[in-house]
Amino acid sequence: MIRIGILGDIGSGKSYVAKNFGYPVFNADEEVAKLYKKDKKIFQKLKKRLPNYFGSFPINKKDVSRAILENKINLKKIITIIHFEIRKKLLIFLRKNKSKKIVILDIPLLLENKINNKNDILIFVKTKKIEVLKRLKKRGNFNKKLINKFKNIQFSLAYKKSKSQYVIKNDFTKKTVLRYIKNILKKIQ
């Protein structure tokens, strides 16, 4: 099985690119959202570590944001709890898809949390900063301070790009993205 990791900035279109490969995608952000909505054990762990922020289930993203913004140590506490569960979900995904030719890993902290394998193919999604900002502002939960907190725990974009074997220049048109994907798939298959 070929594992393809998608790297890039927050709002660069990593998930959009991942979906367009046409292979199974492990989307860590979607898995985290499911944990917040459905996993009472996660809620209990977060409530125990951060009782001032988590009072009721399901977990509200606004409570998570508030916890992160009020104290930078809270982000590390949340990541520690969530990261462990995401790793378990990833292993289940990989087992379930072991007969697939290719799987796509859409995991924002892929390199930072050492989730990637040395044989993974890494693709960096490059996007103009102005486009990223426009896209982020369209999100209902846009908060520049929160985004900066997340960026502070990530490797630099230059580092991520240097670790990648391929770059997709995302202009947010399906035609362009599919052209890049087609060329990459030709080279790796």
Task: Explain what the structure shows.
The chain has helices spanning 14-19, 28-38, 40-49, 61-70, 72-96, 129-138, 144-152, 157-163, 174-188, and strands at 2-8, 25-27, 102-106, 121-126, 166-169. It has 189 residues and is α/β, with parallel strands linked by helices. The chain has two domains: 1-24 and 101-189, Rossmann fold, CATH 3.40.50.300; 28-96. The chain has a five-stranded parallel sheet, with helices on both faces. Helix 2 (28-38) packs across helix 5 (72-96), helix 3 (40-49) packs antiparallel against helix 5 and helix 4 (61-70) packs across helix 5 (72-96). It is globular, with a radius of gyration of 17 Å. The termini are close together.
Structural descriptors:
Rossmann fold, 9 helices
Widest beta sheet: strand line-up: 2-3-1-4-5
Distance between the termini: 11 Å
What fraction of residues sit in β-strands?
5-15%
Average pLDDT confidence is: 92
Give the SSE layout.
Layout: E1 2-8, H1 14-19, E2 25-27, H2 28-38, H3 40-49, H4 61-70, H5 72-96, E3 102-106, E4 121-126, H6 129-138, H7 144-152, H8 157-163, E5 166-169, H9 174-188
In short:
The chain is of the alpha/beta class. The protein has helices spanning 14-19, 28-38, 40-49, 61-70, 72-96, 129-138, 144-152, 157-163, 174-188, and strands at 2-8, 25-27, 102-106, 121-126, 166-169.
